[in-house]
């Protein structure tokens, strides 16, 4: 059992006032808050070892390089990658997906197929559409049912020897659905297709084991798991990363440059052109250490309790409809209230100190499926409490009274 008050004391922002009210932060799906150890580690880097990495022989450069590479090793261990050079630092999930989609340009031909799902964030749709435009490959979509679960029988029908890559999220940001990715991966492999998993919403809640999953690529962002913005990870199997061309050219990614011909560095540097977010890379390791200290079993137990309590309390509100009722879901509740626009609720509860997300959550096809303009989304983290849920319920009730 977590000592929630002790955990909350690690997050200075949770005692801030917003609009004169104590902050209730339920927009964790967009970005998580940061514990003091993470905030301190950023300052410590700039105060004590700031230097460019992989270049200098001087001491600071070596200290910064060591810290960056130690962090890569921590992340390798955290996701159980076989080699540390399979762990690439990126600026985030979006960058990682674009890197892979771009790399597939030379591997696809007209008539090949790319499979995405109906539950994707725009950043796991648009790069693949752009790839299909470049290559004249065809984009196929795994549909979902009314609960917001992927229809696996339809997935089976889409798979064929034309399928070259399947790309789905581990957990949906808009509805919280946890997808059966192990089954999705093994079925794609059976027809010889590669698989990319968008783990942006999974890593705050669980520890992915990329070898057990057997995915070819797994991408995520640091900022959703207590780390800073502007840093993320692309895991790729060694064979795949060797097969893909570099995404950006520049310093650090080369072996030798002449005007006649350039040869590229080995993994992971082939994909890490230019000066990276050094502090971000180092501090992502600190964030992962913090989350492991809290413990993912504890995190999941707390979040499940919040999900159950939040669902029970929300459905007490007249006219409230939960969108996304998958059997297997994480601590995200998307909902609408009959006759009221989500934006109006979001604006009023914000004045009462409650931060929830309103809108399409970068997943317009999901909103189209349910024929709604958007939802109100409360996404809980392990540092949230039932008392905060009570405060949200009171605020929503007030908003409904004002708006009806
Ligand atoms: N995929 C999913 C499922 C997400 O929730 C997000 C962030 N909302 C992204 C991709 C994009 O992540 P980022 O903006 O950090 O690149």
UniProtKB/TrEMBL annotation:
<keyword id="KW-0663">Pyridoxal phosphate</keyword>
<dbReference type="InterPro" id="IPR010970">
    <property type="entry name" value="Cys_dSase_SufS"/>
</dbReference>
<dbReference type="InterPro" id="IPR000192">
    <property type="entry name" value="Aminotrans_V_dom"/>
</dbReference>
<dbReference type="InterPro" id="IPR015424">
    <property type="entry name" value="PyrdxlP-dep_Trfase"/>
</dbReference>
<keyword id="KW-0808">Transferase</keyword>
<dbReference type="InterPro" id="IPR015421">
    <property type="entry name" value="PyrdxlP-dep_Trfase_major"/>
</dbReference>
<dbReference type="Pfam" id="PF00266">
    <property type="entry name" value="Aminotran_5"/>
</dbReference>
<dbReference type="InterPro" id="IPR015422">
    <property type="entry name" value="PyrdxlP-dep_Trfase_small"/>
</dbReference>
<feature type="domain" description="Aminotransferase class V">
    <location>
        <begin position="24"/>
        <end position="391"/>
    </location>
</feature>
<dbReference type="InterPro" id="IPR020578">
    <property type="entry name" value="Aminotrans_V_PyrdxlP_BS"/>
</dbReference>
<comment type="function">
    <text>Catalyzes the removal of elemental sulfur and selenium atoms from L-cysteine, L-cystine, L-selenocysteine, and L-selenocystine to produce L-alanine.</text>
</comment>
<protein>
    <recommendedName>
        <fullName>Cysteine desulfurase</fullName>
        <ecNumber>2.8.1.7</ecNumber>
    </recommendedName>
</protein>
<comment type="similarity">
    <text>Belongs to the class-V pyridoxal-phosphate-dependent aminotransferase family. Csd subfamily.</text>
</comment>
<dbReference type="GO" id="GO:0031071">
    <property type="term" value="F:cysteine desulfurase activity"/>
</dbReference>
């Amino acid at each position: 059992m977590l000592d929630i008050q002790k955990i909350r004391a690690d997050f200075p922002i949770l005692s801030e006032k917003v609009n004169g009210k104590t902050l209730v932060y339920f927009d964790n799906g967009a970005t998580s808050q940061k514990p003091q150890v993470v905030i301190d580690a950023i300052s410590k880097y700039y105060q004590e070892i700031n230097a460019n990495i992989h270049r200098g022989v001087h001491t600071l450069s070596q200290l910064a390089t060591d810290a960056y590479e130690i962090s890569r090793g921590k992340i390798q261990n955290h996701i159980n990658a076989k080699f540390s050079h399979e762990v690439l630092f990126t600026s985030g999930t979006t960058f990682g997906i674009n890197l892979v989609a771009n790399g597939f340009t030379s591997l696809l031909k007209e008539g090949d197929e790319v499979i995405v799902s109906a539950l994707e964030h725009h950043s796991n749709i648009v790069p693949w559409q752009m790839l299909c435009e470049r290559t004249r490959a065809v984009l196929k979509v795994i549909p979902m049912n009314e609960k917001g679960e992927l229809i696996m029988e339809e997935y089976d029908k889409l798979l064929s020897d034309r399928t070259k890559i399947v790309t789905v999220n581990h957990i949906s940001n808009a509805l919280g659905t946890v997808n059966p990715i192990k089954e999705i991966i093994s079925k794609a492999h059976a027809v010889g297709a590669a698989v990319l998993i968008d783990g942006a919403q999974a890593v705050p809640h669980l520890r992915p084991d990329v070898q057990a999953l057997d995915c070819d690529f797994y991408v995520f962002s640091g900022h959703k798991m207590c780390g800073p913005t502007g840093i993320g990870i692309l895991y790729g199997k060694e064979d795949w990363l060797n097969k893909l061309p570099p995404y950006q050219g520049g310093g650090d990614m080369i072996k030798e440059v002449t005007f006649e011909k350039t040869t590229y560095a080995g993994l992971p540097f082939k994909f890490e052109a230019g000066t990276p977010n050094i502090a971000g890379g180092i501090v992502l390791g600190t964030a992962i250490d913090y989350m492991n200290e809290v413990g993912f079993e504890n995190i999941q137990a707390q979040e499940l309790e919040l999900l159950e309590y939040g669902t029970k309390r929300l459905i007490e509100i007249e006219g409230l409809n939960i969108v996304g009722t998958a059997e297997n879901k994480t601590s995200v509740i998307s909902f609408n209230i009959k006759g009221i626009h989500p934006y109006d609720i979001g604006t009023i509860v914000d004045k009462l100190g409650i931060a929830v997300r309103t809108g399409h959550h970068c997943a317009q096809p999901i909103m189209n499926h349910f024929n709604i303009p958007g939802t109100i989304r409360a996404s809980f983290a392990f540092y949230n409490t039932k008392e905060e849920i009570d405060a949200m319920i009171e605020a929503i009730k007030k908003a409904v009274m004002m708006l009806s």
